[in-house]
Amino acid sequence: MNLIKPSVVAFALSMAAQVTYAQNLPPLKVGMMLPYSGTFAALGNAIDNGFQLYVKELGGKIGGREITYVKVDDESEPSKATDNINKLIKRDNVDVVIGTVHSGVAMAMAKVAKDTGTMLIIPNAGADAITGPLCAKNIFRSSFTNGQPGYAMGEVAAKKGYKTAMTITWKYAAGEESVKGFQESFEKGGGKILKELTLPFPGVEFQALLTEVAAAKPDVVYSFFAGGGAVKFVKDYAAAGLNKTIPLVGPGFLTDGTLEAQGESAQGMLTSLHYGDNLNTKRDNEFRLAYAKQYRLQPDVYAVQGYDAAQMLAIGLKATNGDITKKDEFAKAVTAAKIDSPRGPFTISRAHNPVQDFYLRQVVGKENKVIGIASKSLADAGRGCNLQ
Ligand code: BEZ
After folding, report:
1. Which pLDDT band holds residue 20 (cuts at 50, 70, 90)?
2. Does ligand 1 lie within 6 Å of residue 174's CB atom?
3. Residues 116 and 167 in one domain
4. Same domain for 154 and 63?
5. Would you say the CB of residue 253 lies under 6 angstroms from ligand 1?
6. What pLDDT digit, counting tens, does each position of 27-85 carry?
7. Using one digit for the tens of pLDDT, what is the confidence trace for 286-311?
8. DSSP letter string over 78-93?
9. 139 and 48 together in one domain
10. How do residues 21-30 score in pLDDT, each as one tens digit?
């Protein structure tokens, strides 16, 4: 006689009901608010590619729901950010927003997401405030906080015996917080910052600043730039001959996704980041192969962050059976998860920021080669975040 336990029958019925429930939900509307133009255009496109690659690996559905996309080019323009995200939420009725790259734009987005309760997953912008005072149960980040790679690089620079540094960056949250992270650990290690140089975002008129560096002769220069700005800065630094006498270091954004264009000028540079080109793990090799096949491009850190934003969304929606309005259950699942990222596994902190390793990388040819760990399991402090 075949005996089936009632508990097994109940479980099977509940699973079937859950699958049917998810199948009955309408497609999930995903608002992609990213820079598709300007100095960060390549970053926005890589994030979009990474996100869509993971969705494709899931067979085109997340949490059992088909996906439809609504895309907005945010132009890395903070003054347009509130209007742009409000249109996605109120006019297009998106269920979740994925964005963005620029910290100033992302802070405006976080304010709206917090006020409206819309799910927001940030696949790059590292502004401290987002996992600080602006934190919310419906806001997550798949990337980093701005101070993290800077802090990791400051430790490395101090250990290398550099005593004096100058910093150069764009004058906005990302640049300033990145420099602050570097300064904190560099000074802890006995170093001194001689001068902090800045120029407005997204300016690329570096000559006057490079002349100041040449005159002051610090032991090292720490710099935050990304995308098109990073390409120009690294090339100008080398063209001025400074790379022969004063090492240029930075967060990995300075050389990630940019090496093809930077060529000889970037060779030998040290940077720190939560990704590198030769991790050579099974997970990363599979990701890199799939990405290259799909897009005929090599992935970079931005592609990984987009891919992991989709993974985080999938984890949350699996736990809520496709229902994105169940914010507590969604957050509980994401913060309990170990995310199986191409960068290496990471967890999500109380303030919804990745806790992850930062690699020390060196540019060799067209690769950011990982040559060590700059900081292990680095978490941001989440200062001012009142989430439990
Ligand atoms: C930011 O604005 O937060 C940012 C932009 C590009 C790379 C890294 C951070």
Report:
1. low
2. yes
3. no
4. no
5. yes
6. 999 999 999 999 999 999 999 999 999 999 999 999 999 999 999 999 999 999 999 99
7. 999 999 999 999 999 999 999 999 99
8. HHHHHHHHHIIIIIS-
9. yes
10. 666 899 999 9
Is the pLDDT at 5 greater than 60? The verdict is no
Q: Would the pLDDT of 216 be above 90?
A: yes
Alpha-carbon distance of 342 to 179, in angstroms, equals 27
Going from the Cα of 227 to the center of ligand 1, the distance in angstroms, rounded, reads 9
Ligand 1 centroid–CA 269 distance in Å is: 19
User: What is the DSSP-derived secondary structure letter of residue 374?
Assistant: E
Same domain, residue pair 79 and 134: yes
259 lines ligand 1 (CB under 6 A): no
CA distance 135 to 129: 7
Of 227, 248, 273, at which residue does a domain stop? 273
> Is 257 in the same domain as 342?
no
Q: What is the mean pLDDT of the chain?
A: 94
At 40 the pLDDT is 98
Give residue 81's domain range: 9-144+279-352
Are the C-beta atoms of 380 and 145 separated by less than 8 Å?
Answer: yes
26 with 105, same domain?
yes
Q: How many domains does the chain have?
A: 2
Residue identified by tokens 């914010």 is 327
Indicate if the pLDDT at residue 4 is higher than 50.
no
Contact 103 CB / ligand 1 (< 6 Å) = yes
Tell me whether residue 263 is in a domain: yes
Q: Do residues 71 and 192 share a domain?
A: no
The backbone torsions φ and ψ at residue 210, rounded to the nearest 5 degrees and listed phi first, read -70, -30
The CA distance from 351 to 130, in Å, is: 9
368 located within any domain? no
DSSP annotation of 26 reads: P
Domain-located, residue 268:
yes
Q: Is 330 exposed, middle or buried (0-12, 13-18, 19+ CB in 10 A)?
A: buried
Return d(Cα 16, Cα 262) in angstroms, integer: 54
Indicate which CATH number applies to the domain containing 181.
3.40.50.2300
Task: Give yes or no: residues 291 and 313 share one domain.
Answer: yes
What pTM does this model have?
0.94
Please check whether residue 172 lies inside any domain of the structure: yes
